[in-house]
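quick one, 233 residues, struct below
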Amino acid sequence: MTMTKLAGICAFWYALGAVAPAAKAADDVHIWVRGFIPDLAATPGMLKASDGGCIATDRRSWSDATDASARLSSDFHLVLNEGTPSIRPTRQKVNASAANRQVDCQTLQELAAAPARLLADEVGEPVQIQEKTQVTVLAAVPDPQRTWSSSTINYGATFTYDPSTKTLEYQAATGLFPAYEAYATLNGGPVIPVFRSGPLPRNESTEGSSVELKGSVSLAAKRPKPPTNLTVQ
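---
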């Protein structure tokens, strides 16, 4: 059979629908962001609050575990099914807050727990910009360490995924306190650290200040060695 005949037969069957065009593979980008209170080396388990009492920390350092303790967290999947983007929450809601626990400053025994109400709770619809897909998350809760101020534990982040390069770009702003971290996986692959920040020194003159974070990570890369430093002021 000549190549011309073979090409003609293929074109005929394609026209009849016997040969379907290859569908775009679905990409599932799992992203989770958290604001957590890390342990102090000198006083593990608690931090002094502005009212003289003590509050419980999250009793940890950096962690990419999806169930690691945090005061504020966002957890969702950015799904591209045949090029159509959608958000799938990992739990009931994308943004969530954990209770603030007051503890005895000497024994660390829990004295009371109060729910932390979300002051900001926004998740944008994913939008396509040329071949990339972008989604924005904004979340905030009151800062339990500074009851005299309007300070919050907060972050806002825009994530932009490029399916052609399997790259996740990020542009984020966080508070100075406490520590903030974000991670991502692609199609259930290795966990990739996206960003880590804080806690940073703060006082009344830095009230309302934020940390600006920007960069990109490859979700197709092997898991990198994470940084080990965590400075608590």
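The mean pLDDT is 82.
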